[in-house]
TrEMBL record:
The keyword Signal applies. Residues 1-19 form the signal peptide. It comes from Meristemomyces frigidus. Keywords: Signal. Residues 28-164 form the NTF2-like domain. Pfam families: NTF2_7 (PF26534). This is NTF2-like domain-containing protein. The keyword Signal applies.
C-alpha cells in the first residue's frame, strides 16, 4: 500500500512537471524543441518564405548577439560586446544579405533548461572555397524565444570566402 502511494505521488509530480508551461522555469526544453528552433534559424538564413515573420516571432524583443568572430572580421576590438544593436538590426542584416544555403547541422543539443548549442557547417559562403564551421549558443527567455545568441566560427575561412580577408601569396588548402 505504501509503495503504491509513493508511485502515485511520483507519477503526479512527473505529470505536473512535464505538463508545465514554458513560462515556468521548472520546464526545460527538450531535444525536439531545440531542433525545431535550429530549423527556424536555418529557414531565416535561407530566406525561406515567411523568414521575416519567423524571425520576428523567434527572437525576443531584447535580443542580443555576441561574437568575437564577427568583431575580428570587422576589425573591431575583441571585447565580447554586442554585434547588433537590437532584434530589428539583426533581422535587417540577415535578410539584407544573400541567403546562406547548404548548411549542415553537425550537432544540436538542449542544455541547462533554456540553452541550445548548435554546431554547424556552412558549405557555401560566397565563393565557397572553404567550409566554415562554428557554434551558436542560444539562450531562451521564458516564452521560448531567443534572447541571446553567442556565436563563434572560423572567421578566417569565412573572410577568405567572402573577400573580407586576402590570403596574399600564401595559399590555404581547402
Amino acid at each position: 500500500m505504501r509503495g503504491s502511494t509513493f508511485i502515485a505521488g511520483a507519477l503526479a509530480f512527473l505529470t505536473t512537471t512535464i505538463a508545465s508551461p514554458v513560462q515556468d522555469r521548472a520546464y526545460c526544453i527538450g531535444q525536439w524543441e531545440a531542433q525545431e528552433i535550429v530549423n527556424k534559424i536555418i529557414s531565416i538564413f535561407g530566406h525561406q518564405p515567411g523568414a521575416n515573420a519567423t524571425a520576428e516571432a523567434l527572437l525576443a524583443d531584447d535580443f542580443t548577439e555576441h561574437s568575437d568572430s564577427i568583431h575580428a572580421l570587422e576589425g573591431q576590438p575583441l571585447t565580447g560586446a554586442s554585434t547588433t544593436a537590437n532584434k530589428q538590426e539583426w533581422i535587417k542584416g540577415m535578410l539584407g544579405e544573400p541567403p546562406t544555403l547548404n548548411i549542415t547541422t553537425l550537432y544540436v543539443g538542449a542544455t541547462g533548461c533554456n540553452k541550445i548549442i548548435w554546431y554547424w557547417q556552412f558549405n557555401s559562403v560566397a565563393r565557397a572555397t572553404y567550409r566554415v564551421r562554428g557554434f551558436n549558443l542560444f539562450t531562451l527567455n521564458s516564452q521560448c524565444q531567443i534572447q541571446e545568441l553567442d556565436l563563434e566560427f572560423n572567421s578566417i575561412a569565412w573572410g577568405l570566402d567572402d573577400g573580407e580577408l586576402q590570403c596574399g601569396n600564401r595559399s590555404a588548402k581547402a
